[in-house]
Structure formats: structure tokens, C-alpha cells
Specification:
Elements lengths: L1 H5 L11 H25 L8 H10 L8 H21 L4 H18 L9 H7 L4 H22 L17
Helix pairs in contact: 2-3, 2-7, 3-7, 4-5, 4-6, 4-7, 5-6
Length: 170
């Protein structure tokens, strides 16, 4: 029975040395500090919760398809569009947030721009309503900051290729 239970505890993330983890954590912090600084300067509520996991994906897993710029920008654009529409149509219906998450997931998968943190945007919008234009501005600014930091960060040793080069087979 213990052997069967152990398979649920198997870790699948690759093992890296501490400089890699330090660089990844530092890169995520740097990206979020950039967003926070921009928030202080503009007065916009730029530090949205889904951007935290985006920072992790960009800094620790730059090779992942969901960490690529097209997936990040596309996923958040879809999420902002669906969340804004759902909030406008059914502003006080908690179930609408759940349906919006499902619609965001479906569209990201169909359009091949899967970025899991973006699926949380409808929940954030329903928990703390935000005007659609502000939502788009917030997510665009956050994505630009995080991708820009990742592009610079991955040129520092230990280096990583980011963004991934186009694979002709795709």
C-alpha cells in the first residue's frame, strides 16, 4: 500500500543546483518589483495575483510552452476579454466566474496559447471588480514587465534560451 501511495509523492520537476534556483527566485522578485514600481508610479493596481505564477513560469521554466510570450500575452488577452464580458453580463453571479474560467481554458487550449495563471483572471475580477480598460492595461503592463525581465535574466549565467526559437515542426 505504501508503494502505491508513494507514486503520488513523486516529484517531476528537474533537479537543479542552488544557483539556478537563486537566479529563478531573484528573477521573479525582480519582475514583480518592476510591476510594483510601475504601479506606484502610475497609480494602477498592477500587482494582480495571477502574475505571481507567471513570474515563476518565466524565471524557473523558460523552456515551457506556457512560459512563451505568445502564450502569456494570448492567454491574458483571452482571460481579460472573457472576464470583462462575464462581469458586465452577470456582475453578482459567482457561478459566472466559474463558467468564465472554463471558457478561458477552452479558448486558450483551442487557440494553443495555454497559460495556466491566466485562467485565474476571472476569479480575480469577480472577487475585486475592475473596469475592463483598466484590466487590459494592468495585464498588458504586467506581461511586458515580466517578459522583458525574463529576456534579460536568461542571458545571465546559468543561461537559458528565452524565448524559445520557433520549431518548424510546430
Amino acid at each position: 500500500m505504501f508503494r502505491q501511495f508513494r507514486r503520488y509523492l513523486t516529484r517531476h520537476d528537474p533537479m537543479h543546483h542552488w544557483p539556478h534556483h537563486l537566479k529563478s527566485s531573484g528573477g521573479a522578485v525582480l519582475g514583480l518589483v518592476a510591476i510594483g514600481s510601475l504601479a506606484a508610479w502610475t497609480g494602477l493596481p498592477l500587482l494582480m495575483a495571477p502574475l505571481g505564477p507567471t513570474a515563476l513560469a518565466l524565471s524557473a521554466h523558460p523552456e515551457s510552452p506556457s512560459a512563451q510570450p505568445a502564450n502569456i500575452f494570448g492567454g491574458y488577452f483571452i482571460a481579460a476579454t472573457v472576464a470583462s464580458g462575464a462581469q458586465a453580463l452577470l456582475p453578482h453571479a459567482a457561478w459566472a466566474a466559474a463558467i468564465a474560467v472554463g471558457v478561458v481554458m477552452l479558448l486558450m487550449l483551442l487557440l494553443r496559447v495555454n497559460h495556466p495563471p491566466a485562467a485565474a483572471v476571472p476569479l480575480a475580477v469577480f472577487a475585486s471588480p475592475i473596469a475592463p480598460q483598466t484590466l487590459f492595461e494592468v495585464l498588458l503592463a504586467g506581461c511586458i514587465c515580466l517578459v522583458a525581465v525574463a529576456m534579460v535574466m536568461h542571458r545571465v549565467p546559468p543561461r537559458a534560451v528565452y524565448p524559445r526559437l520557433h520549431d518548424p515542426a510546430e
